[in-house]
Write a structure and sequence with these properties.
By secondary structure, this protein is mainly α. It comes from Pseudooceanicola nanhaiensis.
């Protein structure tokens, strides 16, 4: 929880009261109290979220790019092989049709 800063016109006593209230609310888990949730449960959720964010930051964009470039190259190679095979079959079929006609 954020502790408010001292602003002009606010007395030191008011600031101390706010600070103590902020610390107390944070320690007791004011959100958990109003929704019948244990502070440890909320802290567990926060830790899970932090771990998820760390994992997403670990994915290096260059690694992802390399992965997609490799996948694209593999697909292009497969397409090229299929085109060569199709061309070879057409030539073979044309030769077979030519021999049958003689």
């Amino acid at each position: 929880m954020r502790i408010p800063a001292v602003r002009p016109g606010r007395s030191e006593r008011q600031f101390s009261a706010l600070r103590v209230g902020a610390k107390r609310d944070g320690a007791q888990g004011s959100t958990g109290g109003s929704f019948d949730l244990a502070p440890s449960e909320i802290e567990g959720w926060v830790e899970d979220a932090k771990r998820g964010m760390e994992n997403s930051l670990r994915a290096n964009p260059l690694d992802i790019r390399e992965h997609y470039e490799k996948q694209l190259k593999d697909l292009q190679d497969a397409y090229g092989e299929a085109m060569l095979e199709q061309r070879a079959r057409k030539k073979l079929q044309a030769q077979l049709d030519g021999k049958d006609g003689i």
